[in-house]
C-alpha cells in the first residue's frame, strides 16, 4: 500500500504489517478477538467510517495517527539486498537456531565477596551449573558502570564494569570460562538511553550548543513557575509522570522515556550511531558473542517529537508511543548497526577465545571459528507479529531474534492486573504466531524475565505454594518452551520452578518502577495497604530476588546481607535439593535439553498442531525430514484431569512428568514427549 486515505478499506489496513499489528493490539487490549476484523462486512468498511464508528472509543485523530505510522513501514520498505544475512533458511542454520539461552540477572545470581550483591566472579563460580543444565548461551543483564537508578539499565560508562560487579579482568575470565564450557555469552546493550551521569550527557548539558548537545533530545522552553512545564510534548515516562525534565543548568528540557536519570539518545545524529557501533566492536574484540538490545525498537523517534494521540495513550497507558514504538528510521538504523558493529570485517583479529563446539551427545569439541555476525537479540516491547517479522526476518539484515511480549498477559490484561493467566491463551498465541511465520522467521520463546512476575504464579496464584502443582506446571512450561519451534530463553530460577515472593511491605521492594508507582498511588490518596496490593501483581522485584542455590536463610547466594531478600522458604525448591532428586524440575530441564540436542527434529523439525481448538489439551508433532523419527508433544493446560483427544498417532513415551505410560487421560499439567511409532 503506498497511499492510505479516508477511502481505504479496513482490510487493506489489516493487510499492511503495521496496520495489522496495531489493530490486533487494540483488539487484544480491548479483550476482543481479531476474527472480528476478518468479518467481510467489517473488513470492507472504509477508514473514515471506522474512524466515525470508533470515535467514542478511539477519538478523532486515531485514524490519522495510524495512517502516519503505516506510511513508515511495510512491504514498500523492502531492504537493500541483505547486507549481513542472519542466514536462517540457509543450508547451515545459524547456531542460535538450536541454542538454549539462559538469562542471568547478575545482581541476584551469586555473590562471591559477601557484600550482598551478586557479581561476575559469582557467575563464573556457577558456570558449571549452567553447563550441566545444557545452556548454549548465557545472557547477562547489565554489568556496565552505572549509578543504578534502574539497576544497570542506566549506563555511565559502556567500557567499564560496575564496581560492585567486579573488574574487566573478571569479565574476561567469565567469557573464557563460558567458552571453555561450550557456552557463548552475550551482554545487555542499553543504548536507547544513557545515564544522566554519562560523560556525553554531562557535556551536552554543560554546553547544549556544543558537540554533545545533539546526542540527546534537548529542547528549549520555559519550566513554568513551579518547574513543571508545560514540557515540549505530552509523552509519558514508563516510570511515571512526564517523559521530560527541565535541566536548569542547560535551560533545556531533556527527554527520558524511563527514569529521570535515563536520558534518551538522539539516534538521528550519525555520531551517536557511530559511537554505539564502536562500543559493539570493542566488546566483540574481547570475545563477547553478541548482545541483547534493550528497548531497541524505541530508538527512532518521529521528527519534531509531536504530541501523542490521546486515545492511543489512554488505551495503552502511555501517550506518545505511536511516535517511537516503530519509528520511521528504525529499520535503517538497525541495518547500519548490524553492518558497522556486529559484522566481522575481513582481517579483523580473532577474539581471545571462541566457544567450544558441543556435539549432539553433549561432549565438547574444538573451539568454533569466530561468528561472521555476532547475534542481535532485540528487546522490542509493543511490537506485534508482523513487526517482529520485519525486524527479524533473515533477509532483512536487521535483528536475529525479537521478544514479542504479547504472550505474557491475557487479553485485555496488563501486568498490574490481579488475575489468573489462562494457558489456553498461550496456546492460541503461539498457534496464531506460528501460522504466520515462514522459513525466514525466527521466534524467541520466553515466559519469565527480570521485568515480569513469574509465569508459574500468574497461572497458579496462591496455589503456587502447592509443591505438586508447582512442579507439574514448571515441567509443562519447560516442555512448551523447549520443544515448540523457536529459540528458548530461560530466566534464572525457572529451572527450579521459582515463584513470586510473598512481599508484605513496600520496604521489601527495590525497583524504581514499583516505588514510583507506589508513591503516585499514595499521592492520589490510596492507603499504604491498598497501594501495595495494587503494585504487587506486576512488581518486577518478584523475579529479582536472589537465586536459591541451597536451603537455609542465605540460600547459598551470599555470606552477607542480600541487597534484596527473597521471602520464600519452601522445601525442595533450591538447586541443591533438586539436583539430588531425579524427579525434580531441574533434572527435567536437563533431560529435556539433552534430548533436544540429540534429536534434531525437536529443534529443526516441522510443526503440526493437533486438536488445535482444544482449550485444555496442547499437542503437536515435530516432524523430521527424511528418515528421522517424528515426535509427539502433549501438555495438559489445566489443573484438572483431562481426556486425550482421539485418533492421536501411536507413540512411545521418552520423557514425561508423571511416568512412561500414555493413557486415555492426562493428569493436571501433565506433559509428555513421545517418539511416534512408525507405521499406520
Ligand atoms: C527494558 C529492561 O528490561 C528494563 O529492566 C528497563 O527498566 C527498561 N528496558 C529501560 O532500560
Ligand atoms: Mg558481591
UniProtKB/TrEMBL annotation:
Residues 72-92, 342-371 are annotated as: Disordered. It holds the Pfam family Alpha-amylase. It is an enzyme of class 3 (hydrolase). The keyword Hydrolase applies. One of its GO terms (molecular function) is alpha-amylase activity. One of its GO terms (biological process) is oligosaccharide catabolic process. Residues 103-544 form the Glycosyl hydrolase family 13 catalytic domain. Its EC number is 3.2.1.10. It comes from the Bacteria. Keywords: Glycosidase, Hydrolase. Gene3D superfamilies: Glycosidases (3.20.20.80), Oligo-1,6-glucosidase, Domain 2 (3.90.400.10). Transmembrane segments: none annotated. The keyword Hydrolase applies. Belongs to the glycosyl hydrolase 13 family. This is Oligo-1,6-glucosidase. It comes from Occultella aeris.
